[in-house]
């Protein structure tokens, strides 16, 4: 199947368009399909498709419905 997109919900995000990077020190929620991750601070390298929550991170997911 197709991988669902990742949604980033945060504030005060810094963006470096030429490097394809984003970062914030604010509370952040990452959502992808039924998976939700929360943390304080985030950095992302969109070239390598890597997202990292920096502090106090935790997550949850809902099992697939068959």
Please tell me about this protein's structure.
It is a single chain. By secondary structure, the chain is mostly beta strands. 0% of the residues lie in helices and 64% in strands. It is built from no helices and five strands. Strands 1, 2, 3, 4 and 5 form a five-stranded antiparallel beta sheet that branches. The two termini are 14 Å apart. The mean pLDDT is 92.
Order of helices and strands: EEEEE
Sheet with the most strands?
A: 5 strands, antiparallel
- Structural class of the secondary structure composition? mainly beta
According to DSSP, the number of beta strands is 5
General form: globular
Rg, rounded, reads 13 Å
Helix and strand layout, with pairings?
Elements: E1 6-9, E2 14-16, E3 21-32, E4 35-45, E5 50-61
Antiparallel strand pairs: 1-3, 2-3, 3-4, 4-5
Features:
64% strand, five-stranded antiparallel sheet, globular, mainly beta, 66 residues
Report a brief summary of the structure.
With 66 residues, the protein is an all-beta fold.
